[in-house]
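Morning run. Coffee first, then this:
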Amino acid sequence: MVFRRATQSARVMTFLTLLAAGCSMKDAEQAPARTEQHQATVFTVNYPLAYFAQRLAPENVNVVFPAPPDVDPAFWKPSPEAIGRFQGADLILLNGAGYARWVRHATLPKSRMVVTAKGCRDTFLPAQQTASHQHGPDGKHAHGDTAFTTWLDLRLALCQASRVREGLIQLAPASEEAIHGRFAALEHDLTQLDTRLRAVANTWRDQPMLASHPVYQYLAEAYRLRIESMHFEPGEALTPKDLRAVDALLERHPAKLMLWEAQPLPTTEQQLRNRGITIIVVDPAAQPPSDGDFLTVMTVSVERLTCATGTEACR
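And here it is:
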C-alpha cells in the first residue's frame, strides 16, 4: 500500500511538472509576439521636437506632444496626471535653455531624458526683457533670463534634431540604419531652408526691425537681424500706453518692419501701418499648425520675409 501511494504521488508530480513545462513553453512562444507588438512612446515638450521625432522614428514608436493647443508650451503647467505620462514614457525629449520650467520641479527619469539643445552652443542668449505679461489662459508670466526658442536658428534646430536621432537610436537600435536615412532627409530640408533664410536676411541686415514678442533672439543672432522686442499679443488691442511705447522706440530704432507670432487685430495693423510699419507673421511653431507641419510653417515665414523685400511677388 505504501508503494502504491508513492507511485501515485510520483505520477501526480510528473503530471504537474509536465503541465507546468507546457505552460512555460506556451508562454515562451507567445513572448516574442508581445515584444514585437510593443509600441515605445516618446514624449516631447514642444512641437518642433515632436516634428523631428516623427520624421525620424520607426513605425513602432509613438510620438506624443501632450500640451493643449490653446497654451504656450513653454509656460504650460501640466497636471499630475500629465506629468505621470511623461514619467512613464520610454524617451523624454526636452528642449533645454530654460524651456518648460515645470521640468525643474518634476521628478523625471534622467536615464530616459534627452536635453536636445545641450551642447549645441557654448552659451544661450539672454531673454533681455523680463517684465511679466499676460499670455493665454495660463495667466501672467515672465520670459525669464534665458531665451529658449532655439530652433528659430535652423542650424540649432538641426543640432537638436541630431540629439533626437541619438535618443531614438538608443530606444530602437534595430532601426539605426533607417533612422540615419531619415535624418539625412531632414538635414537636407533644414539646411536648404537655412540657406534661403540667410539669403533673404542679408536684405534686412542693416535695417532696424521690431518684434511683437521677445521670442526671436536666436533668429536675430543667427541671421544678423537688428530686432527690438515689445510685449504685445495678437488678439489684444494696443492701448494708448502701448502706442506711446512704440513711438518712443521708433525714435531711436526707426523700424519699417515688425514680426508677429500671429496675425494681429485689424485695428492694430492699421495703427502700425499709420506709423510706416509693415507686419510680417513669423510663427515660432511651438504648436502644430492647422495645416502643414514645422517645415511648412518655417518655409512660409521665409517666403513672407522675401515678399517684404520686394524682390519676389507675394502670394
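The chain has two domains: 40-127+141-184, 195-309. Good start to the day.
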